[in-house]
Amino acid sequence: MQLRLLLFTDERLAHRSEIKRVQDYLERLRQETDFSLEIINIKDQPQLVELYRLVATPSLVKVFPEPLQVFAGSNILPDLERWWGQWLDTVAALRKQLGDRQLAEVERCDRRLAASQTEHSKEVMRLSDEIFQLQREKEALLKQIEFKDQILAMLAHDLRSPLTGTSIAIETLEILSKRPETEKTVGLRGQLYQQAKNQLQIMNRMITELLQESRQLLTKLDVKPQPMALSPLCQQITEQIQERFQRKSIQLVLDIPRDLPEVYGDRELIRQVIVNLLDNAIKYSPEGGLVRLVGLHRTLQQVQVSVIDTGHGIPEEEQEKIFEGHFRLKRDATQEGYGLGLAVCRQIIQAHQGRIWVDSTPGQGSEFHFTLPVSGDRQA
User: Fold this and answer.
1) Are 270 and 228 in contact (CB under 8 A)?
2) d(C-alpha 349, C-alpha 115), whole Å
């Protein structure tokens, strides 16, 4: 019968010294007392992270004898020193009460129960992933239906004006055709033909642009995720578009830690999201402004990427609407396009089981954030 401990670790450089301190301390204790210690990398056993509801690494879990206890982070060594004696006393008391043979049977039962709980946790995680996937597909279908309705409404609204202009021109030409031809009517007829032609070209351009952007938004994304490092990707992107920042004298600051965990995503689609957010930052930042591209390890399972600008800012009541396919801010009235870029970004991030949102105050700039799953979690 032995005290049984699990030490959960990760591969982050920032945690290595703390993990080593805990391991060294446990090795010193092992010289005095025999106990079972299993070291587990969280990316290899995500179901155990879920089973024991761990929120930080390193974490030390005492699984036998009961009750279960979890120590995490910088508190591990102080808690271990405080509880170690009590744990040994509990083991000694159990051995005295039950005897070695009966106690060994208790320990075997405990291990079988732990194995059963682990398998149960794996199954729960698998079912949760399936349910999440089905819900996401349902939401995507509903959004596609909603967006198609929006496309029809937009076409009906936006085509009304050029159609009216064309109709007026044709009706006037019909009237002129019934009158005697004069130098004045010849000139007017030419102007009306040109007006009708211009209005038809406007309609053609509007339909072409809308169909192109909506096709991109409505097409099912072909996501091919794989483990990828964000730091070199962001470095490559910023080098490629640096000239555009220089044209407006905008300072671009890249802050992606080299020890940021790999994420699980489609490199080209993630590139599209980052480029789109940086494009917007350039467009709406003033001359001489500042744009920051930042990455951080948000949780054990997520990495967060942020694009922060010093532009006009976005009113709170419009911060969710900007991710809709048809919405345009008043400030964008003179900008070309239908403003579908952020809607595409949201579709891409949601396809990666992430989230995208904006924090902004008018006059103080905007912070666009999105999250991606850490590579180990999705592969497992």
Assistant:
1) yes
2) 35
Domain that holds residue 297: 223-379
Report residue 331's pLDDT band, with 50, 70 and 90 as the boundaries. very low
Q: Looking up tokens 């990455």, which residue turns up?
A: 295
**Whether 256 and 363 share a structural domain:** yes
267: pLDDT strictly greater than 60:
yes
Number of domains in the chain: 3
- Asked whether the beta carbons of 230 and 272 are under 8 A apart, the reply is no
Is the full-model pTM beyond 0.90? no
d(CA 283, CA 232): 24
* Nearest residue to 262 via CA among 208, 215, 303: 303
* Listed residues 171, 203, 218: the one ending a domain: 218
The amino acid that residue 6 corresponds to is: L
Instruction: Using DSSP, state whether 83 is helix, strand or coil.
Output: helix
Q: How far is CA 141 from CA 106, 144, 354, in A?
A: 52, 5, 18
Q: What is the CATH number of the domain that holds 58?
A: 3.40.30.10
